[in-house]
Amino acid sequence: MISFKKIPVITLLFIVSFVLSRQLFAQEAYPKRIISLGPAITESLYLLNAGDRIVGNTIYCERPEAAKKNEKIGTVVEINLEKIVSLEPDLIIATSLTNSQAKEKLKMLGLRVVEISQAQSFGDLCDNFIRLGEIVGQKQLAEEITATAKNEVTSLKAKTEALPKPTVFLQLGMKPLVTVTQDSFMNDYIEFAGGVNIAKGIGRPLYSKEKVAASNPDVIIVVSMGTNNAEEEKKNWESYQELKAVQKKRIYIIDSNPLCSPTPVSFVAALQNVIHLLHPDDEQ
């Protein structure tokens, strides 16, 4: 054991000063002026009680309602560099969709840029959320929120295990036709809801209506993707009279928000919606 009596006073003062400075630095290291470049990031920051630190976000950041009032710096892909610089952020949280050249320019300007990777599973969503919690000094809260979400997902999965497993085609894009594979967290919606994704095993998410017709799914879900074309696309599918989904009137439209950019919390809500679509007669 170290005897403090043998340590010179000046050394003790240095140690105390060093410890206090480290603690002060740790507190100051948490960002106070954040720019969010993704809807899920923005919503996550509000859940982590850091929404008041957001000085700018994208035009697609609409959750929660307060996020609509933030300064807008562009889209998820294309951002306004001058606008961002003018907001004097001490942290920019980007996504894998953010223009890579823009990210490099921001770094060259001396701005701190952190990228949140694209989630490939619900587990990844939770990991990303906890990472955001660490960044803003709310790791414990992030862990509590994700633990609750995981418990809710486990409970929902248990309820669908014994139910019939309809085959499902989940449509994201129209021209070209885009779906979800096993490398997307959106595949978890289908599987956790007790369905079978007909496109799970393909390498790329590009698909064709001929392949859909060949698989003849029980359910077709068209994601709106923020456009008014979903109803038209539903009518197009209804012309394929040989499809089981058409015969049983099981072509559904679902809002892309928050399905495509969820937090662990909104993932649970979106999953409940998908379960309702796949098992409308089996809900308890």
From TrEMBL:
Superkingdom to which the source organism belongs: Bacteria
Domain Fe/B12 periplasmic-binding, residue spans: 33-282
SUPFAM superfamilies found in the cross-reference section: Helical backbone' metal receptor
InterPro entries tied to this protein: ABC_Transporter_SBP (IPR050902), ABC_transptr_periplasmic_BD (IPR002491), Vit_B12_bind_prot (IPR054828)
Record GO biological process: cellular response to iron ion
Keywords from the UniProt entry: Signal
Alphabetized PANTHER family for the sequence: MOLYBDATE-BINDING PROTEIN MOLA, VITAMIN B12-BINDING PROTEIN
Name used for this protein in its record: Fe/B12 periplasmic-binding domain-containing protein
